[in-house]
Amino acid sequence: MTLFYIVISLLIIQRITELIIAKRNEKWVLSRGGVEHGREHYYLIVTLHVSFLLALVLETTYFSSGISPLWPVLLPLIILTQIIRYWAIASLGYYWNTRIIIIPDHEVVSKGPYQFMRHPNYVVVAAEILFLPLLFSAYATAILFSILNAFMMLIRIPAEEKALRQHTNYQKAFTNKRRFLPK
């Protein structure tokens, strides 16, 4: 259980740090004429992620059988997702955010993992929502929140892509790139 509390503490610190970075980036983008899209569903994303953390803690604390025997596979996958997450965040720089805020007529970022696929950060989130609970044998959390996240992405990604197509060179920049898998 000690490993779980270390991991969950690091995850919470990571999320708080990301919210601080997102707020800083939000101010930067808005000061340059950025326009927010998808505001009506943003609370669902926040609710999903907070609920995921709570479910992970509750299931691991009260129902888990401990660390998975697959930990030698899952732990490197989790570490890989974190590397890709920070690669995506660094590649987007001030454009990275937890919200959809677009500066009209700016070119989309197509470097870093974005040179291979359109939505590497969403792939990372989906992998994390699956692999973290599996690492600690929290199977219900892994299944439930993977399904909920998939439904959330059915709302989020079309809203983001619509905003990007309307205000940037997104269509041209990502014509030959798949959403989630490298081509």
From TrEMBL:
Q: Keywords assigned by UniProt? A: Membrane, Transmembrane, Transmembrane helix
A Gene Ontology CC term for this entry? membrane
Q: Which InterPro entries does the record cross-reference, listed alphabetically?
A: ICMT_MeTrfase
User: Localized where?
Assistant: Membrane
Q: Where are the transmembrane segments?
A: 41-58, 70-89, 122-155
Q: How does it sit in the membrane?
A: Multi-pass membrane protein
Organism annotation: Metabacillus lacus
GO molecular-function terms, A-Z: protein C-terminal S-isoprenylcysteine carboxyl O-methyltransferase activity
Give the chief site where it resides. Answer: membrane
A Pfam family name for this chain?
ICMT
| Protein's name according to its UniProt entry | Isoprenylcysteine carboxyl methyltransferase
